[in-house]
Design brief:
Elements lengths: L8 H4 L8 H7 L1 H14 L10 H22 L10 H17 L3 H9 L2 H11 L4 H45 L3 E4 L2 E7 L4 H18 L3 E8 L5 H16 L3 E5 L3 H10 L7 E3 L2 H11 L7 H13 L3 H13 L6 H7 L1
Parallel strand pairs: 2-3, 3-4, 4-5
Antiparallel strand pairs: 1-2
Length: about 350
């Protein structure tokens, strides 16, 4: 028996090869780039002081090319597949750069997610006759962009945390400067709050500088310390003790009346530490401890004049010894001229 049922010509026609989002990214690459760049430039998030239009296009072009290549090599696989390693590495790189330049997390994420506004309309037109393919590709591409945006945000946050840690380390280093006041004399001005971490860095910096310069006196100035408590006092005592072990004596300066009263009320014992009220007094004492003394120019001129007018070598020696006892000396050419 012959079946005379009509044959559907559409079912007999060969079906075209299935196309996916990777084919759209490849065949309509320039159109996608133009639309994406235009959408970015028109948005309120584009800041030309952070990135040029040329650099934006270069990055966008690399993303489109890598995305098309990765999707094709993975066979439509997940974003965690090895085929997307290059893409993940590039996203980490540009998100790190954006963190350094000062982008916000929202600006960093919406850059990638905005590609959806360009690709989805093109997919709708490309797969208008195949609803199943359209839904499948839209679902795949949407999930892919979401994971790419997540990578951008996660690495952006890590980069910002690294920057903050580095800035904090720099600030700690700047907040504990060890200054060479004179030969064998160091000064460490302490400003702000002294916590355990900063105290440890302060001690390490001071001890290292003492060893490097061979200094014998270190001045710890606490003029900039707002409050004094038992914790801060213990840090100071530990620093002084450590400095003594490497051959340096410490002088504590900048002790205000308020801090002195607080230390007495708290019962803090600083009798083992030499203290002075002003930084200038501490420097003067440090010079005396190192065998020097501060002499005014007028007094020095008068002493030098006495040497010139002295008669006989014995008087010159006596005057020179007197100057040396005050921490000064007379240069040889002056003595020679006096003779």
């Amino acid at each position: 028996m012959v079946d005379n049922a009509p044959v559907n010509s559409e079912s007999m026609a060969p079906k075209p090869a299935a196309r996916g989002v990777s084919d759209i990214l490849t065949t309509r690459r320039d159109e996608i780039l133009d639309l994406w760049i235009s959408e970015r430039l028109d948005s309120d998030e584009f800041r030309d002081e952070l990135i040029s239009k040329r650099e934006l296009r270069r990055q966008s072009q690399q993303i489109v090319d890598m995305l098309a290549r990765s999707i094709k090599e993975s066979g439509g696989g997940d974003f965690e597949s090895p085929a997307f390693d290059e893409m993940r590495s590039f996203l980490n790189e540009i998100s790190h750069q954006r963190a350094i330049k000062g982008y916000t997390p929202q600006e960093n994420a919406t850059y990638i997610l905005s590609l959806r506004n360009v690709i989805i309309p093109l997919m709708a037109g490309e797969f208008s006759g195949d609803l199943e393919t359209l839904l499948r590709e839209m679902n795949f591409f949407t999930r892919l962009l979401d994971k790419m945006g997540l990578v951008m945000v996660e690495n952006f946050i890590r980069s910002r945390e690294e920057i903050i840690r580095q800035q904090r380390a720099d600030m700690l280093e700047l907040s504990t400067p060890v200054i060479k006041v004179w030969d064998k004399i160091l000064s460490l001005p302490i400003i702000g709050t002294l916590d355990s971490r900063r105290a440890q860095m302060m001690m390490e910096s001071l001890l290292q500088k003492i060893v490097e310069t061979g200094s014998t006196v270190a001045i710890l100035d606490i003029t900039g310390v707002r409050t004094m408590d038992t914790l801060v006092a213990n840090h100071l005592i530990k620093t002084v003790t450590a400095a003594r072990l490497v051959g340096a004596r410490c002088i504590l300066t900048g002790v205000s009346p308020a801090i002195a009263q607080t230390m007495v009320q708290l019962g803090i014992d600083l009798t083992q530490i030499t203290t002075r009220a002003q930084m200038a007094d501490g420097i003067k004492l440090a010079l005396e401890m190192s065998g020097r003394v501060v002499v005014s120019a007028k007094s020095l001129a008068a002493m030098s004049e006495n040497i010139r007018t002295a008669s006989g070598n014995e008087s010159i020696k006596v005057a020179t010894s007197r100057l040396a006892a005050h921490g000064t000396s007379v240069v040889d050419d002056n003595i020679q001229r006096s003779k």
